[in-house]
Amino acid sequence: MENNSDVRAHFIMAVCGGFFGGYAIFGRMKVFGSAMTANLIELVGDLLGRDAKEIALRGGALVLYAGAMVLFAVLSEKTEWNLKRLVFLFEFLAIAALAFMPGNMDPILALYPVFFVTSFQWCVFKGADGYACSTIFSTNNVKQTVLSFSEYFLTEKGRHDERNEKLKKGKFFGGTLLCFHFGVAFAWTGLHFMGYAAAWLCLIPLAACVCTVEAGYAAERKERSEKENSAGQAGKSFLTRARTLE
User: Fold this and answer.
1) I need a surface site. Which of 28, 65, 96, 97 has the fewest CB within 10 A?
2) Buried b (16+ CB within 10 A) or exposed e, 147-162
3) How far is CA 232 from each of CA 68, 202, 239, rounded to the nearest angstrom?
4) Are the CB atoms for 204 and 91 separated by under 8 Å?
5) Predicted structure pTM score
6) Rounded distance between C-alpha atoms, residue 48 and residue 59, angstroms
7) Helix (H) or strand (E) holding 128
8) Closest by alpha carbon to 46, among 57, 36, 37?
9) Torsions phi, psi of 157, nearest 5?
10) 148 and 162 in contact (C-beta within 8 Å)?
11) What residues contact 83, with CB distance under 8 A and at least 6 apart?
12) Rounded Cα gap, residues 35 and 80, in angstroms
């Protein structure tokens, strides 16, 4: 039950990741706020070109992105907080901030909430079912999907366990890609009809993930309670038999 819940939550968070990525690219002049590759390349160009404003904006984005990772590390080591629930809170706040960012803002500055919240999401929702898999961008997911299906077809049919594992892995990473790009399409459609207020639409998959995670926790509590009750009943039975023997 826990494993199924984790996988469902992973796929839903990939929808959220795709939504944030699509919202950033389609709504803010093709700036991708969910990864640092393009931002760091542009930052190097700004440094060489000595564009102080762009250096400050992109440097700030880097600080936020890295700061979210530092925050995750500190909270993981120093607290007992439920970080999945904290992701949900951060994502709600990011959605609200994005919805009210004016259209004439600098696109990098307008995406500061995305730089922070997707980085934190990546740290907390970092995979499921034994696979490390990003829910905020797709490069490695494409690689793993293609390699897994290629290896599945190349593996001899007599090696059933190996083929089944390759197929399972390909389906997992491929499913993540599909969910991510569904979120991208959802963002594009929302921006087309609602403008920047489309950020609120991300509350739909976010709410679905909250329900999924909480249902998983409830199932865990029920299973733990049943085990404790079973252990208690076994203990009572043992004592009863011992007293009978006396």
Assistant:
1) 96
2) ebbebbeebeeeeeee
3) 44, 45, 11
4) no
5) 0.90
6) 14
7) strand 127-128
8) 57
9) -65, -20
10) no
11) 72, 75, 76, 124
12) 28
Q: How far is CA 181 from the centre of its chain?
A: 13
What is the spatial distance between Cα 159 and Cα 176, in angstroms, rounded to a whole number?
A: 26
Residue ranges of domains in the chain, CATH in brackets: 2-126+183-245 (1.20.1250)
DSSP state for residue 105 in the 8-state scheme: S
Written as one letter, the residue type at 91 is: E
Give the total residue count for the chain: 246
Can you read off the two tokens belonging to residue 84?
């999945």
| Residues with pLDDT less than 50, the chain | 1-2
Q: Residue 3: what pLDDT?
A: 66
Between the two ends of the chain, the Cα-to-Cα distance in Å is 43
Contacts with 28 (C-beta within 8 Å, 6 or more apart), sequence order: 107, 108, 110, 111
Burial of 106 (0-12, 13-18, 19+ CB in 10 A): middle
